[in-house]
């Protein structure tokens, strides 16, 4: 899970759930097996926790599940994001977790490490989801839950100003991005060529799309340790830092940037963000602004990749109504329900086949996000990720704001991550 900056967050085949008799399976290679789900409609009461806007909107969608399963009662509790993590950990410790819940993708390792999550039934088609999103459910080779909705990051750019700067089409590689950012300053009147986070909390979300596009892996030793100090990461941080040292990005950028007004005014004609920013900039820009900008995939170094975030749906081991909880989770991941949820919440579908629906294909910008999701990647599901990444954020800030040596910065981040460990 990644918190959105402006609000709380978030084609193959349909999910296929083969219903079978209950009974724990044997241990499978690479992870735990889980019982399949009993036949018949959902019954009884299901308690569900969801955060932010999703918690407020989910009850209306759950009513449709109740209509299709007259014997079930879905009780949704909306939880504020800032209280969610502590509420979950307290409930897990007390054995009072809900039956099912929306869980941030970066919390999966921690909650699975507490033995709180029920493994995903093997009959759920994991291949129906975007690969990067599916990996956020996997801890130690076992999948716990399913991706509910996803988001990824693209480069927003002012199409009209790019044309003034001499660009009819956006660049496709690292050198091209820097050249266009400079041209935006020199020829299109931009104060800064691109808006990049100059360190601080969450700056890893801006850095890692470049790192993954450079072939970087965040783990080593067969996934047993952090891998911040790699040649690919060093090259990435050098490139990222050069935007600040060369005066293309603002090294004094505030922790809470004024992205929308800067973009609309042309002061900062490029930035990296998720799909929720489309409505934000169009609202501020007014009539006709949607035609003045576009989005482009992350520029290629070795490939083009980005960050996949969002939230997962899990079932807790303490549930007294496991079958119905999984039936509800599985229903929320059906393609037609995913499309309906997008229309109600603007949360992007995690199921690839849902992207074939006209509701998503009609918007070319949205379709570009869908294409990027094919190669988007997720951080490792280590229980200590939130702690380890704080040190990387700190070191990125030293490079961006003070011109610190990228190699030295990454060695410090690696040392901190090694001392913290993975929590396994």
Number of alpha- plus pi-helical segments: 16
Q: Helical amount among residues, as a percent range? A: 40-55%
- What is the CATH superfamily of the largest domain? Periplasmic binding protein-like II
Count every beta strand, where a strand is a DSSP E run of 2 or more residues.
13
**CATH class identity of the largest domain:** Alpha Beta
Region (Disordered): 405-424
Protein name: Sugar ABC transporter substrate-binding protein
Family: Belongs to the bacterial solute-binding protein 1 family.
InterPro entries: SBP
Key structural traits:
424 residues, alpha+beta, D-Maltodextrin-Binding Protein, domain 2, 2 domains, 6-stranded mixed beta sheet, 3-stranded antiparallel beta sheet, 13 strands, 41% helix, disordered N terminus
How would you portray this structure in words?
The chain has 424 residues and is an alpha+beta fold. It has two domains: 44-152 and 308-373, D-Maltodextrin-Binding Protein, domain 2; 154-304 and 381-420, Periplasmic binding protein-like II (D-Maltodextrin-Binding Protein, domain 2, 3-Layer(aba) Sandwich). Helix content is 41%, strand content 14%. It is built from 16 helices and 13 strands. A six-stranded mixed sheet has the order 2-1-3-12-6-13. A three-stranded antiparallel sheet has the order 10-7-11. It has a two-stranded antiparallel sheet with strand order 4-5. The radius of gyration is 22 Å and the shape is globular. Mean pLDDT is 90; it is low at 1-30. Belongs to the bacterial solute-binding protein 1 family. Residues 405-424 are annotated as: Disordered. Residues 413-424 have a biased composition (Polar residues). It comes from Lentzea miocenica. Keywords: Signal, Transport.
């Amino acid at each position: 899970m990644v918190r959105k900056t402006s609000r709380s967050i978030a084609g193959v085949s349909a999910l296929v759930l083969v219903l079978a008799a209950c009974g724990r399976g044997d241990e499978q290679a690479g992870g735990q097996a889980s019982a399949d789900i009993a036949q018949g409609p959902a019954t009884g009461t299901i308690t569900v926790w969801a955060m932010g806007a999703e918690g407020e909107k989910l009850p209306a969608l759950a009513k449709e599940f109740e209509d299709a399963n007259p014997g079930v009662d879905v009780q949704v509790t909306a939880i504020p994001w800032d209280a969610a993590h502590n509420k979950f950990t307290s409930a897990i410790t007390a054995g009072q977790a809900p039956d099912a819940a929306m869980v941030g993708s970066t919390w999966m390792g921690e909650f699975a490490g507490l033995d709180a999550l029920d493994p995903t039934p093997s009959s759920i088609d994991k291949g129906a989801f975007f690969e990067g999103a599916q990996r956020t459910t996997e801890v130690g080779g076992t999948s716990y839950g399913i991706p509910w909705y996803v988001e990824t990051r693209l480069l927003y750019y002012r199409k009209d100003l790019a044309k003034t700067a001499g660009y009819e089409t956006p660049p496709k590689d690292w050198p091209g991005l820097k050249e266009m950012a400079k041209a935006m300053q020199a020829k299109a009147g931009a104060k800064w060529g691109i808006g990049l986070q100059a360190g601080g909390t969450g700056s890893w979300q801006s850095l890692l799309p470049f790192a993954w596009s450079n072939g970087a892996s965040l783990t080593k030793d067969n996934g047993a340790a952090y891998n911040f100090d790699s040649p690919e990461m060093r090259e990435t941080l050098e490139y990222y830092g050069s935007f600040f040292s060369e005066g293309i990005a603002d090294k004094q950028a505030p922790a809470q940037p004024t992205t929308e007004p800067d973009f609309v005014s042309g002061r900062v004609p490029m930035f990296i963000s998720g799909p929720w920013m489309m409505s934000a900039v169009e609202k501020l820009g007014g009539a006709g602004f949607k035609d003045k900008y576009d989005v482009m995939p992350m520029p290629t170094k070795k490939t083009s990749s980005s960050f996949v975030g969002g939230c997962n749906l899990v079932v807790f081991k303490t549930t007294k109504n496991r079958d119905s909880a999984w039936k509800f989770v599985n229903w929320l991941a059906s393609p037609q329900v995913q499309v309906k949820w997008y229309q109600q919440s603007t949360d992007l579908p995690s199921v690839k086949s849902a992207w074939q629906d006209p509701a998503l294909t009609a918007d070319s910008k949205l379709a570009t996000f869908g294409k990027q999701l094919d190669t988007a990647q997720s951080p490792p599901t280590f229980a200590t990720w939130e702690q380890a990444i704080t040190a990387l954020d700190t070191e990125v800030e030293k490079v961006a704001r003070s011109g610190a040596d990228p190699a030295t910065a990454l060695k410090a981040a690696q040392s901190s991550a090694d001392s913290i460990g993975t929590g396994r």
